[in-house]
Specification:
The protein has 289 residues and is mainly alpha-helical. Helix content is 67%, strand content 4%.
Length: 289
């Protein structure tokens, strides 16, 4: 147990260091070039130009540290990421990278909603084909298990696409999306450790460090935003990690309890859609509320 805690702390601190360093590189070296190519949108809350490419630092720090940990022999310490890399962890890294690239393209050129949605569907489809799928749900407090049957694939895809857009909608104030993500990922890490998923607990701690490395520059008053590259990445990772953390070992049953952690972005999305409906604007349109 003590060795696992040291690995958790080491992964967290290493991701924090790498992510914050890369965010500084983006902020002081790359932001001017990228910002000059960027088109303005309704999501721009500040009159002055604030770089919104912090997601690059989060993604690079998260992926780099995980790949480094895969190369380090950790099996004798009770955690081995190598088998996961050829399975669901590899899917998580590929899907997260694709989500980050799609968001980065939107940050630069403000792509149309239909093309953005098509990209999200493709990423979700890639995930359910090669990664986790919710076959059954175990309802807390009721002791009831619900088999999803033919709805397993579409509902899993809907969960992934929904969370990607939920974090994107939450990302409207300095430090908000990053703060919500850190709280959610922190609880997921604890749950993963308690439920005997040490590998996924380590992944969560690495993500927690990567997000904190960005958040110190994004807290009010922010000097950099995560942009769609960051919000779509974090939404995707939260969706998939929630499924992995809540999964019962050697079964396709998912506990619903960890999903409650994500209630804030989910409810915020529902209210945003309802608000836009009352205002008579398309649900996919950006606004300043």
């Amino acid at each position: 147990m003590q060795s696992e805690l040291k690995l958790y702390a080491g992964g967290f601190l290493l991701a924090l260091l790498v992510s914050s360093t890369l965010v500084l590189v983006v902020l002081h070296r790359l932001s001017r070039v990228l910002q000059s190519r960027r088109q303005q949108s309704l999501r721009d809350q500040r009159a002055e130009a604030v770089p919104r490419f912090g997601g690059i630092g989060i993604a690079s720090g998260f992926v780099a540290v995980l790949l480094l940990l895969v190369l380090v022999p950790l099996k004798e310490k009770g955690i081995d990421l190598r088998p996961l890399l050829g399975g669901n962890l590899g899917v998580v890294l590929l899907g997260g990278s694709a989500a980050c690239l799609l968001g980065f393209w939107d940050d630069l050129f403000v792509i149309r909603a239909r093309y953005k949605f098509a990209g999200q569907v493709g990423i979700a489809l890639l995930t359910v084909v090669y990664g986790p799928v919710v076959e059954s749900i175990n309802l807390p407090f009721f002791g009831t298990q619900i088999s999803l049957g033919v709805l397993a694939l579409p509902l899993t895809m809907l969960w992934i696409i929904g969370l990607m857009n939920a974090i994107n909608l939450v990302d409207g104030m300095d430090g908000l999306a990053g703060g919500i993500t850190m709280v959610a990922v922190g609880f997921m890490a604890i749950i993963a450790d308690v439920w005997n998923h040490p590998e996924w607990a380590l992944v969560c701690f690495v993500l927690l460090g990567a997000v904190l490395g960005f958040w110190v520059f994004n807290r009010p008053t922010a000097s950099i935003f995560m942009g769609d590259s960051g919000s779509m990445l974090l939404g995707y990772l939260l969706a998939v990690l929630a499924l992995e953390v809540a999964r019962v070992p050697q079964a396709d049953v998912v506990h619903l309890a960890p999903v409650v952690i994500l209630a804030v972005p989910i409810l915020d999305t529902v209210f945003a859609l309802f608000r836009r409906y009352l205002k008579g604007i398309p649900f996919y349109s950006a606004d300043r509320d």
